[in-house]
Specification:
Blueprint (H helix, E strand, L loop, with lengths): L3 H10 L4 E3 L15 E11 L7 E13 L4 H11 L5 E8 L4 E13 L1
Parallel strand pairs: 1-2
Antiparallel strand pairs: 2-3, 3-5, 4-5
Amino acid sequence: MVKYERIIERAVALGLPIAEYEFRDTKKNPAPDPPFLIYFSSEDQSGTDTGNRIRRINGSIELYTDRKPDHILERRIEREVLFDVDFHKTTAPIQSENMYQTAYDFNVVQKF
């Protein structure tokens, strides 16, 4: 099974601006214009010895685009980043920002 870190490496390889949780919008480093990606995760761990520890990672990659969904970028994420992971996809407008958010939620189980 693919590791969470590998999924993020694939997302970075798309060449879009990407940040964990959020972009820090400063005068020196303004937040990028869309399209861009945000990713984040939460995890549970189980197992008592070092040989049988399991991480259950709930991950999300969010694509932000101008005014409308970008189906070409969505297909790239699905084919180049999440091709070997089951995911749930939702798309919603963010009217106050004139953007669309397409969120990909997925789960990964890793032994460590």
